[in-house]
Amino acid sequence: MGVEVGAQAARSRALAVLRIRSRALAVALLPAAVAVVLLVGGSSGHITGGGWGTTRWIVTILAALVLLAAAGIALVVARARPAVSPTVPIPEESAPDLYRMVRDLADRLDVPAPSAIALTPDCDSWLEDRTHPAHGPPPPEGRDEIAGVRGIRGGRGIRGLSTQSRRAPSAPVLVIGSPFLWWMRVGELRAVLAPVVAGTGPSAHPDIAAARRFVRGLDAAVAVTSVPPRGPLSRTVLGAVGWVTRLLLRSCRGHAAEMERGVAAAAAERAQAVDYGLRIVAQEQVGLAYAGWDRLLTRVALPAWRMGRWPSRLDAGVVAALTELSRRDRLAEGFASRLGERPACDLLEEPGTVDEAASLLAARLFHGGPAEAGPDWAPVTWQDYPDEVVDRKWRADAARLHRVLDALGVRHSTDPAAPDSDGPTLARVMEHLSARPEDRDLAGPDSAALAARRGDAYGAMAEDEDDTDLRLGNERTAALAAGLTVELAREEASAPAVPPAPAGATEQQGPDRALWDDGMLPLFPLQPPRTGRELLADHVTAMVCCAAMDTAGAAPGLDWLDGPSLLVEGERAADLGPRVLSLVETGDPTPLRDWLRDLGVRPEKPVRLV
């Protein structure tokens, strides 16, 4: 009963959208109808007089202009390419078990099976209509027979089948979040996809499909008219077209939203009978996968992307991150027992290749990297991540910290006669952060010299620094944090932009490749909050880690939840962060100094920087 109620509600809203389309067509044809009446009345002698001839010509010209404008708007709406989500296509030959599972699920739900399956680097799943001619025709079912080795038909038969396939209605594409395939078990994935696959039933209704095509066409036309035109004539024409399409889109927006709610309600009600109990458990895994995926991107993948490297096994990293979470969190102890069951990625013939493609797409969407690997954009495995990313990141942060200290005029050592006093040392950083205001004349630049520098960019930003951010009123600490912020901004501004895609690359790469504008990348930028306090603490931690690696034999490591980590005798140095924060926030170096002494780190020794 609920399925029928939801479907009827969706159909009624779809008819409301189609009525808006019909009214727009009637308004466009109204001047032409009046002109026809006047012309027929004049020729038959029923509408005569001195003013009717002039009126007839005016209405006829107006009708022609309105028809021409309506035809232009209809042409823009018809030719505009609706937005398509960037995905990794999964051909059936590369995942026969996955296609078999989805088709079996569709048969059990008594709905049409999706026409294809694609993966997205996100924790979500949906159905996407890709039947627009701009997205390319669906692959002909008889391709092997027609264009195979025997070739029993000629080129005419191929063209005829292609045209017929383009005109035939096609089921939507099932888009699956790639982290689901690696973290979820086969039964859990089936339960999660049941409500999604059930949506192909309402989508096959002619009225709902027509209403969706109309709304997508209007939305695509609005995007076309939003592009800055070149000349005044095109600006005027596109402005008029944009005004009409926006008016129509606003008129049917409410009905379209209610139509989609009705479709979702009908699909959810239909899927109630399929693995209901397992779906409740699987929904918990959806939230867990989202948390692990977000943590992996912001803490692990983002540092690598900023250095020109992209992890090639992000989905496998999600499993490692969530497994680590299950070990740390007592509430998640039951999740580790699931790992003995068959993972959903076993439904793929080559999961490693698919994971690499999804990882590269994630780097493009969330960071804006190039479409292909190159010298400055190379993949990195998890085994090489500590040496190629963590070590380089720490040394780059330490070098940036010393450049800012040089710009602030901070001396390398309080003892000019000390050996290696001009090298980058951890002692220089600790002395600068731990010195008291009354000791400034003895350790580094005096207060007057630092106050004179408050007119530059570092000083200006230090004045605007919120004291609650650093939790202290230390002028030097605020200036150092502001200097790091300015230095990072300069590096990002001077970084080379992503090279544009070559002309025709979109058409050459197929319907599922680059259907978005490369100039808009990244589509979903990751911007974790980095306050001045966090930025300064990260750079001081990097300097401590460099000193520990160069003088005490520590090693870089990878923590799946927290990103780069220092390994001391194979164990993660989890107590380093609080000691660095104590130095940054209070200026007390004692906890960090004791930790360095116990580890055998020599802060006065220069470290290697990049």
Labels describing this entry:
single chain; 610 residues; globular; three-stranded antiparallel beta sheet; mainly alpha; 60% helix; four-stranded mixed beta sheet
Please summarize what this structure is.
This protein is 60% helix and 6% strand.
Please, could you describe this protein's structure?
- The chain has helices at 2-44, 52-79, 96-109, 143-147, 155-167, 178-183, 186-197, 200-203, 206-225, 232-270, 276-306, 314-328, 333-336, 351-367, 385-408, 426-434, 447-452, 457-464, 467-470, 475-494, 505-508, 532-552, 576-586, 590-599; strands at residues 88-90, 116-120, 126-128, 173-177, 309-311, 378-380, 555-559, 563-568, 571-572.
- It has 610 residues and is mainly alpha-helical.
- The strands form 3 sheets. The protein has a 4-stranded mixed beta sheet. Strands 7-8-9 form a 3-stranded antiparallel beta sheet.
- Strand 8 and strand 9 (571-572) form a beta hairpin.
- Helix 1 (2-44) runs antiparallel to helix 2 (52-79).
- The longest helix is centred in the N-terminal third of the chain and has 43 residues, at 2-44.
- The chain starts with a helix and ends in an 11-residue tail after the last helix.
Regarding quaternary structure, what we see is single chain
Label the structural class.
Answer: mainly alpha
Helical run tally: 24
How many angstroms separate the termini? 68 Å
Our estimate of the beta-strand percent is 5-15%
What is the CA-based Rg, rounded?
32 Å
Summarize model confidence as the mean pLDDT.
Answer: 80
Number of strands: 9
- Main-sheet strand order equals 1-2-4-3
Report on the biggest sheet. Answer: 4 strands, mixed
Helix % is 55-70%
Principal-axis shape equals globular
Low-confidence stretches: 137-169, 439-473, 500-514
